[in-house]
Amino acid sequence: MGGSVLRRSPLALALVAIALALGSPGSSAPERNVATSQAFAIKIVVPGQSGAITGYVAAPKDSVGFGAGFAYPQDGSVLTSGAVTSSASADPSQTSTASASAGVTSISLFGGEVTVEKVDAKVQATAGTAGSSGDFSGTAVTGVAGSAVAGNTLGNWGTLSISNGAGGSADTDTRRVWHGSVTALAITLTAEHGGLPAGSQILVGYAEANVDAAAAPPPTTTPVPTPAGGGTTTTATPKDKVPAKPPEPGVLPRKPIDKIPDVHPKLTAGGYVFPVYGPVSYSDTYGAARADVGWHHGGDIFAPLGAPVLAVATGTVFSVGWNDLGGWRLWLRDRQGNQFYYAHLSAYSLNAVNGAHVRAGAVLGFVGNTGDAQGTPYHLHFEIHPVSLLPFGYDGVVDPTPYLDAWRRVQDIRFAAAAGWLPAAQRGVIAPQPGVILLQVSDISSASGLDPGSLQRALAPVAREGDSALVGGLLPPTSAGTPSLSRG
């Protein structure tokens, strides 16, 4: 999970692949839709040397990377950083969508001559029959300081540049194309410094997205006689209407609305907790096109397999079970009536029972990739349905990213747990059969995600004469502190 250094350049290979996929000038347009994306957290470019890169990810086949920190070289004399995260996703279905993000915190260059609090690089792109679009919302560099910094000049040895991204549409009559990329922070050495030769570059926060989709075919025409005779006229045939997606049984009906909600109502004055315990990575993909449900109704929080999933608020659990899209999933209703959807779980805790009353921070289940997420990196699909928008049914969902940002805990504590359950087979439900499920008397569901001490006590191995069960244990924490309780 640490920030590993790759002594190669996958970026160049990916760019070649993108060029071949999109076609060169004068070549025929591709028959199929194309969607690609890539990102990296930090890249060191040194003339005549191999340099280094960390946090490189690319899609299709969604991927995510994160680590506790990065140093170059090993002694950190050139660069040290805090947490690094990156993610890339791409879907070349009916509507091509792609997104990428990279984030780095607490950067220090050349022993503190340049310091940066945080770098975020983000890009999203969409291409469909009607056109293409993209943006770099969320890209930012904050807290640039240091003794060498004087505007864009670094002492007498380098320059600093900050970018908000560059890209745009290249639509034609037959294809809808958008390409864009951003390097949020770039430092270029104009003279030898700190052991690096002139011409070296330090690139922090790179994200790129490319989408290419077929344009809508010309409308078909049907000849109809003119009232006066003497020739015919043509009228366009109306486009077929897209049938509405059927509702998820027993939860919220689909009541289509004119546009994707862009509101962020306050939920309650109660405390809220980030829904996944431990190290995670996520980016804002709410509203991105999806072939199965029209558009992405939530956010994907990437985490290791089995990472505990927590109740974000005190409330009631309902609709626990299997869904072909969400896999093993459940809903939580807080005391105000707001509803939260959790999907793609690998297993449940004993709290995950219809009608169960749970406190904020209680363990509900464990991260997986069941349902239509099979084959993708392990993650939790998470949705927020404010009580004020419930009349709109399933489409009355809001972008969870601002809430997740507010609920994000200050520090992470890593632990490994192996305890859970899956429902017995139900008639008409096609779901994967459970493998080994490890249970013990002190199940994790008796603990709270807000109290690492309770987790340690709940997961402590129980040794008794004659015991033959496997029991999960607790790994030493990587840092002190607990998830913080935030106001929503």
Describe the structure.
The longest helix is centred in the first third of the chain and has 13 residues. Strands 1, 2, 3, 12, 13, 14, 15, 16 and 17 form a 9-stranded antiparallel beta sheet that branches. Strands 21, 24, 25, 26, 27, 28, 29, 30 and 31 form a 9-stranded antiparallel beta sheet that branches. The chain is mainly β and 488 residues long. It has 3 helices and 32 strands.
Write the SSE topology.
Blueprint (H helix, E strand, L loop, with lengths): L9 H13 L11 E12 L6 E3 L2 E3 L3 E5 L2 E3 L6 E3 L2 E9 L3 E14 L4 E15 L2 E5 L4 E3 L6 E2 L2 E2 L3 E5 L3 E4 L5 E15 L11 E14 L6 E5 L6 E5 L34 E2 L8 E2 L6 E2 L3 E2 L3 E4 L5 E3 L4 E9 L3 E8 L4 E10 L8 E2 L4 E5 L11 E7 L15 H7 L44 H8 L26 E2 L1
Antiparallel strand pairs: 1-2, 1-3, 1-17, 4-7, 5-6, 6-8, 7-8, 8-9, 9-10, 9-11, 12-13, 13-14, 14-16, 15-16, 16-17, 18-19, 20-32, 21-24, 22-23, 24-31, 25-30, 26-27, 26-29, 27-28, 28-30, 28-31
Produce a short descriptive summary.
With 488 residues, the chain is mainly β. The chain is built from three helices and 32 strands. Strand 15 and strand 16 form a beta hairpin.
Summary keywords:
single chain; 488 residues; mainly beta; 9-stranded antiparallel β-sheet; 32 strands; 6% helix; 38% strand; disordered N terminus
Q: What is the helical fraction, as a range of percent?
A: under 10%
Biggest sheet descriptor: 9 strands, antiparallel
- Indicate the radius of gyration in whole angstroms: 25 Å
Structural class: mainly beta
Span between termini: 30 Å
